[in-house]
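user: At home tonight, take the chain set out below, taking as long as you need, and be ready to discuss the fold:
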Amino acid sequence: MTSDGRTTGEDGARDGKYVEPGKAYDRDMRYIADRITVDGRDGWPVEAGRYRLIAARACPWANRTLIVRRLLGLEDAISVGMPGPTHDQRSWTFDLDPGGVDPVLEIPRLQDAYFARYPDYPRGITVPAIVDIPTGGVVTNDFNRITLDFETEWTQFHRDGAPDLYPERLRDEIDTVARRVFREVNNGVYLCGFAGSQQAYDDAYGTLFTALDWLTERLSTQRYLVGDTITEADVRLFTTLARFDPVYHGHFKCNRQKLSEMPVLWAYARDLFQTPGFGDTIDFVQIKEHYYIVHSDINPSRIVPDGPDLQNWLTPHGREELGGRPFGGGTPPPPPRPHDTVAAGHNPMT
């Protein structure tokens, strides 16, 4: 509950409403800032088997953590729980698990982990979240930091051949690119979709497509966003691009062009989608169900569209001609484990 007694949900919704008439969308960026580190300075030391990542496939912020966890081979160190694609005003729920209960945390709702640590937690019950298994309490939901810590604090548990997604010599550039991508693209689509006035929408729409044009120019001569290998910056952009045609183009009115009508970005997105660890984490069915059902003030009928046809994600992309080495001196991750596999028919790969 919020301080005024109203419930608050994912992406800052109040009472299940995502659009505030007359206003621009303002994402609440106040997350639980605790970190899990080698030295345990926040009280949370890196320890295999102690923590559980809760990451709904539908959510782009959570999708980042699933990609990075798999690329780095952290499956044995950090278990994962996956809520279903829809949630109510209270919380994400574990409705995909037998009995509707997470088998490790033994809770039906993610809010139970938040309240185990903060009984009066005042903000949205968001994914991704990392939960301390022994206490059942949430440790952090700071999506911006979680993947960076996977890359820098959990190195002792990285698989052999894990790529360096956050190389020290490129961190300043990665951070600079990622900040603009977040502000104008990752969050930019929400600024369009949750705009409460024509002016707010027009401003967000212009900013979004200016940023996509900037990315098109940048990626027309280099295979990846920073350097010649996949980095954290690519992970952050990819999860938005994967949702663009199925959701953001229509549902959020980001409709100057479809992704599939922007040749450079479309080829770049297909290149990543066809790279192990990226496309095999994408569940297009859950993605569409989440947005079209949960955002009922935008889509009152809650009808989920059948399209678009997504088989084109597997067509040749030609980006190899730009050079680059996807994993640098590392190797691709092995195939996803059974628990991490996207359901049959939910992805062109399955």
